[in-house]
Amino acid sequence: MSNTVQTLSIPAAPSRPWSLPRPLARTLRFCRRKPLGAIGAVIVLALFVMAVFASRIAPYAYDESVARMKPPSVKYWMGTDNLGRDIWSRVVFGARISVTVGFSTVLLATVLATLIGVSSAYLGGSYDILVQRVVDAWMSFPALVIVLSMLAALGPGLLNLILALSILGAAGTSRIIRGATLSVMQHPYIEATRALGATHARILLRHVLPNVMATVIILATIGLGAVILAESTLSFLGFGVPPPYPSWGGMLSGSGRTFMYHAPWMALWPATAISLAVFGFNMFGDALRDMLDPRLRGAGGGPIR
Amino acid sequence: MPTYVLRRLLIAVPSLLVATFIVFTLPRLIPGDVVQLMLEEKAYGKDLEELRAKLGLDRPIHVQYAAWLASVAQGRLGESLWTRQPVLAELGRRLPVTLTLGALAIAVAIGIGVPVGIIAGARQDGALDFFSRSAAILGLSIPAFVKAIVIILLPAIWWGWTPMIRFVEFSKDPAMHLLQFVLPGTILGIASAATIMRLTRGMLLEVLRQDYVRTAWAKGLRERVVVLKHALKNAIIPVVTVLGLQVAQIAGGAVVIEQIFGLPGMGQLLLESIIQRDYPVIQGINLVIVIMIVGSNLAVDLLYAVMDPRIRY
Fold first, then answer.
1. Contact A17/A10 with Cβ under 8 angstroms?
2. Could you tell me which residues come within 8 angstroms of residue A98 by beta carbon, excluding any fewer than 6 positions away?
3. Alpha-carbon dihedral of residues A195, A199, A205, A211, nearest 10 degrees?
4. What is the DSSP annotation of B153-217?
5. ipTM for the complex?
6. How confident is the model at residue A303 (pLDDT cuts 50, 70, 90)?
């Protein structure tokens, strides 16, 4: 609602002789209207840069032993751990796990959810009822318990982690996509396309999917924070990436907890990294959702204002 | 009302059945070579065939499921592959710990979430509204295990005080037994409290703008009566729904919290049995969790009928 009011009240912007390029102006408007979202975006961007250029940013390799249990100093910004590894370097490399798991899980979950949701709504009938009862049962489990049980069957590891988290995430998301598809199919243009003799594939790909896409993208953005949180929790419990490679949750468990009274920096820095990352993704996702689709406010398990 | 209760109970049956099927098939995802691997550890059975028979993997899946369901209906959950103890007895020891923890977490969630949400909603944009909204964002963003570690760690750094991580039985020292749940229960409840606070505030803001509330103001009623008696009755209904969903959240969160605070509850048992690949125990725990969640959803639905006289079934 406030959208229209604001755009109407500043009509003269383009006529200024030194008007900003449009993407920049848009970014500035986003920052002004959603300051928390902007902070989130900065955190997300920083996380990305850390993940991509980890080997350039980190002063040492993640498994390189430099000095044992040194407190934070100019040389070792975040101190070193019990095996003498630089914690700042490990935090930087840990961003790779968060980003990899976060994005591949959300991608896989979104594809799965779209397949389930769209087919359930499009085909309807007993297929719809059956699929939705399974989704019901799936959603009634606590997320952590379901993932742990799946990892018990699959065994730990990065790939299995992504697989388990995706299947879990897909269930809830598919319910909302199903709803969106049902509402799209109410429109007369779908009926018109069908009357023209379009095949199912054509109706789905050219008419249904493009109109459901906004919902799908918003759901994916909101899901990122939750996935990163789930990954760190599972790593903390020892079901994440195997030890030599650093993940923030893993750094907090095991030696991080054993030595935390003598070397609190070993636990505090990864804890800060996880909290900042989840906060950043949540705020960015929230703001993006509000900007893209005010109708979705409050739906999809996201926070409600 | 009695017919509604009966009908609602009947609806719960199919969802419970589907859930038990998932509980049952999840461990069935074990690839064959894991059975081989389990055999090599020599702990489970003498040969491959015996192990398969023990896991029940030698029969067709629908037969297995029916047999398992029948034994569950008779109250038998099998025995642990590792300790040979009946699963039911082990669950009986662990369940009270998790239930105490969960009850405390829900109490914290309601006790903090609802009152703070009401005050924040009634005094929109006030100091408490701003403070509690910021706190809620923080409460939701920091994972429970990070909160727990920081809360244990900071007093240790500042005052050298560390909480004891040793479980005290109720029979030995009842006061100490309950006291040791306070910190983990509070940490477990904070995230739910934040969710409930935000929802209570949001719903109250919406209801306070409705016509009948304006009428109540116009009658000259005091603020306390308008907010607590007129507005809250309608605002609280969605909060009850979300509270039902939070039960699942709390059951999942208990796994991590029990691990950090060394509480011998179901969550800890689940982690142990997953690491040991003790499938009958995993199935048993999952079954209990499913029953608790389906039960709490049922309770929420029944509570609806009591709280909202407009709902007629």
1. no
2. A47, A51, A228, A231, A232, A247, A248, A277
3. 20
4. HHHHHHH----------TTT-HHHHHHTTHHHHHHHHHHHHHHHHHHHHHHHHHHHTSHHHHHHH
5. 0.74
6. very low
B32 in contact with chain A, both atoms CB, cutoff 8 A: no
Share of chain B above pLDDT 70, in %: 83
In B, which residues are within 8 Å of A257 by CB distance? 149
> What pLDDT does residue B111 have?
92
pLDDT for position A28? 78
Interchain CB distance below 8 Å, B286 and A141: yes
Summarised one tens digit per residue, pLDDT across range B223-249 is: 888 888 888 888 888 888 788 878 888
CA neighbor of A235 nearest in space, from A69, A85, A94, A103: A94
pTM comes to 0.76
- List the 134-193 stretch of B: residues with Cβ below 8 A of A: 137-138, 140-146, 149-150, 153, 156-157, 162
pLDDT number for residue B16: 76
Q: Which of B13, B140, B145 to mutate to test the interface with A (most CBs of A within 10 A)?
A: B145
Under an 8 A CB cutoff, do A152 and B282 touch? Answer: yes
A156 to chain B, closest Cα gap in Å: 10
Average pLDDT over residues A87-97: 82
The two structure tokens encoding residue A74: 């100019």
Chain B contacts of A136, Cβ < 8 Å?
15, 18
